[in-house]
Amino acid sequence: MPHTGAPKSASLTLVLMVASAAIGGTLQYGYNLAIMNAPTTFIQTFINETFLERWDVQLEDYQVTLVWTVIVSIFSLGGLMGALIAGPMTIRFGRKNCLLLNNVFLMTAALFAVSSRASRSFEMIIISRFLVGISAGVSMNVQPMYFGESAPKHLRGAISLSSAVFTAFGVVLGQVVGLREILGSEQCWQYLLASNAIPGLIQLVTLPWFPESPRYLLIDRGDKEACIKALRRLQGCSVQSCELDDILQEQAETKGLKPQTPWQLFTERAVRWQLVSIVITSSAMQLCGNDSIYFYASYVFKESGIPADKIQYVTIGTGACEFTACIVCNLLIERKGRRFMLMGGFILMTVWAIVFTVALCLEGYISWMPYLSMTCIFTYILSFGMGPAGVTGILPTEIFNQTARPAAYMIAGSMMWLNLFITGMIFPFLVSGLSAFCFVPFAVVCLLSALYVGLFLPETKGKSLSAISREFHKLNYKGQDGKRGSQTQAEYQLGEAPLSTTV
Q1: DSSP state string for 66-103
Q2: What start and end residues bound the annotated signal peptide (predicted)?
Q3: Distance between CA atoms of 430 and 24, rounded to whole angstroms?
Q4: How far is it, in rounded angstroms, from Cα 38 to Cα 177?
């Protein structure tokens, strides 16, 4: 009986598509964050040796640190550029093809990284990190969009959240590969920086076998037959009718509208609260300080009293915590909802940041306080993984329609990468300047973010994209009978396409 096997086949296709897209997508973001911790000392030595060979100049410690900070932070600027070009790329090439083309940046970056040592050029490391940042910036925007548009409504949150699961897995993988016993040694650091090419190659081989986003095919390309085929492969025939009707409704509501630019979103009242929501949540995702632990893990654990020779093993635990928390969040999000997980994560982070600050203040007086400090770091990361890490990436897909979605991801991604750059630059100075109070600013950010989510962000769990849009319409025109900016409620014919219950 053909139809009985269809749902299982569709589920397997959806799972494999998620794995293929993510392994060369958001996994790269986590991986490339984590691999920079292990070779810090070796690359700093390489920078000094290069200056000595070229110009017979012995750099001061602060000068070496400055060049190293540029190498670390240029990744964020590349991510910002990637976020800005992701929107136009998805409109022109589609979600899947955009992810495939994105590997051009990744492979070029790997080539620069692996050649840098032989070429005696630290500039090649900077270029490599910039290019891999562009790749990560594109994938962090495109992948959640691809997943959100391809998954059935009842699984949209869980499938979209898998982006965060793979990001956390990338962090763990990068920490393990970066161990001195593997590629984190003085002889192998250039291969460690270039090892991100392997997941990219896996994606290039596997992703072409999977379909494009059904919403993109129907709404952007107007190809109903291709949309139906994609739905059959990804979701199975049993859910095809209601899912197609949802896409048809969104197509009717956006009929005649061109893809919007970020500037148009800023000037359109009909998306005011949606825009405020993604700006706040995307900024908070970085300003909460979680990724600072990965950029400067050694600084944080040194302040916590962990012996220097144990730090590389302790940092693996941080990645494992976030990975575990993201999996738990993936299981809970369709039960508890986006709002609950996001607000709960920020509240817990606020609490643990306060406890961490108290523990650091009392380290000189109570012998077991360093262990409490270390525990707070792990619980802080767990709290981040339970909410902000995954839910933030889902929101632009759910609260914006097809014409605004690429621009919304451009804005969200830009805010995320810009704030990551700022946090990465100022965190060492926070540690040295505020010492035990270095996490107080992050606690304030988390508390304010939790208040915003609790007071203003509507729940989106289990709702169609059109229903979510109507909820925000009430917020945007509160107390008025105004109509949605340039959109009108359109009539559409359900079940317009011929549907079949068999493959």
Answers
A1: HHHHHHHHHHHHHHHHHHHHHHHHHHHH-HHHHHHHTH
A2: none
A3: 33
A4: 9
pLDDT > 70? residue 360: yes
The encoded tokens of residue 414 equal: 């830009």
Residue that the structure tokens 């600050």 belong to? 357
Name residues whose C-beta falls within 8 Å of residue 277's C-beta, 6 or more positions apart in sequence. Answer: 395, 399, 452, 456, 457
| For the chain, domain boundaries | 12-210, 257-476
Protein fold of 257-476: Growth Hormone; Chain: A; (1.20.1250)
Contact 503, 7 (CB under 8 A): no
- Pair of tokens at residue 269: 């009242």
Architecture of the domain defined by 12-210:
Up-down Bundle (1.20)
For residue 264, which amino acid is it?
A: Q
pLDDT score for 445? 96
Helix (H), strand (E) counts: the chain: 24, 0
Sequential DSSP letters for 280-335 = HHHHHHHHTSHHHHHHTHHHHHHHTT--GGGHHHHHHHHHHHHHHHHHHHHHHHHH
- Residue pLDDT, tens place only, 37-88: 788 889 999 999 999 999 988 888 888 888 988 898 899 899 999 999 999 9
Tell me the residue type at 414.
S
Residue type, 169: F
pLDDT tier, 298 (very low <50, low <70, confident <90, very high otherwise): low
Composition of the chain by helix, strand, coil, percent to 5: 80, 0, 20
Same fold, 12-210 and 257-476: yes
The one-letter code for the residue type at 473 is H
